[in-house]
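3.2 Worked example (two chains)
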Amino acid sequence: MARLAGKVCLITGGARGQGAAEARLFAAEGGKVWITDVLDEEGQALAEEIGAQYRHLDVSSEEEWQAVVDEIVNTDQGLHVLINNAGIFRSNRLVDTSTEEFDLVMSINSTGVFLGMRTAAPAMISSGNGSIVNISSLAGMRGAAGSIAYGASKWAVRGMTKAASIELARKGVRVNSIHPGLIETPMADEVGVGAERIAKRTPLGRVAQAEEVANMALFLASDESSYSTGSEFLIDGGLNAL
């Protein structure tokens, strides 16, 4: 079933993890996929594997965002889906977080989402319809000690999603956020967040796979979610219900 047939899709942070799972699924569902990342070797290899396009993109750069979106529109005559997936995690308590660390996390996780929405929205409006999916986190729904910069950035994504959804609704563009709990990805491995401990606390008793986030992103990118905008979609195994 080609649920994204005719749709041009841009996925940031698409070289590995959740972004790669989304890219594979979107391509399999008929989408014209453009992958961006700063991991060029991995991103290019994935693009060749699934028949997508890859471009380097530092999401904190206004100029790079504009160049990528302009190329997509000029090549494929439109842009219909943006998955703001790129992000980083830093673990530090309030008193140990430097201004430099805070600014770095915000520049990628929050400013990157802002720039992506701002740059993509005009192209989507011109296309006549669009869906923006911002990947936030369970940390954007509830407080967590030891990751103040990350939490701040993900709450910002949640707030921007709601503001943008109201502004763009009458122009045919929907904006929603996904809030994953712990997902089995390279990022989770790198930061050592205690997957086994979290799995034991989770009502469903396990961590999630990247493909489960991709399935939600596909639903929101497709016309199946045509009446959903400004909403949060949790993939957390029930943790936020505790």
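3.2.1 Second chain
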Amino acid sequence: MKEKPIEESQELNEIFLTKELTKQDVLIYCKDLVKNYEIGDFIVKAVDKISLEIKYGEFTVIVGPSGAGKTTLLNLFGGLDSPNSGTVYNQGVIISDMDQESLTLFRLINSGFIFQNYNLISTLTAEENIMFPMNLAGMKFEEQRERAVKLLKKMRLDERREHLPFQLSAGEQQRVAIARALANNPPVILADEPTANLDKKTSQFIKELFQDLKSGERTIIIATHDDDLIALADKIISFDEGKVIEVKVQST
């Protein structure tokens, strides 16, 4: 895979993000994207030569049955995974050509990931989990803590800041995970089934949070089966067996 120096990747990204973006601008674009997995003697085509675009500020939902390849597609969009072939363009950078060091920095600054299984660091408190990406980005400690406290308050977790993940309910862990995704104020949020396996009250809170995020200028991409989240979408991508079945644009 072709490597791109970290300085060049940063420069491209800074030029792109200083543009006056509008909702007509394409923020993420992929062309002829392929991702295969080898399972024994079989090759599973998780993403099978697809081309898509997502515009700045767009709330996009990916729907489809379990095993359709939705999570893989999210990971390719955000640079958590690399394609076997094809191109992923994200915020002015061809991330599918990036070396791992550049890609790690790009993800840290530009994308917030929300995982179905939360992926919190078990030895860190709720507050420390939220501060962790800010620390990696080089933010001053006082600023990290101030922002973490604000995010905990936004998530209604003021009383849980010193709790470790195992001391938190599933819904509380997911809210910490969302706060962590927002920590560096990234322009793109990618979420994989963010309301799965949560109680009704927490699911409703998270839906309201995404409604609030949508009102800003953030680009949001969610893989979900949740009808309420689907109803928020500007664009719905129906995905099955690694292929795009339909792309529907709806007014919300």
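3.3 Remarks
Residues 200-214 form the longest helix (15 residues).
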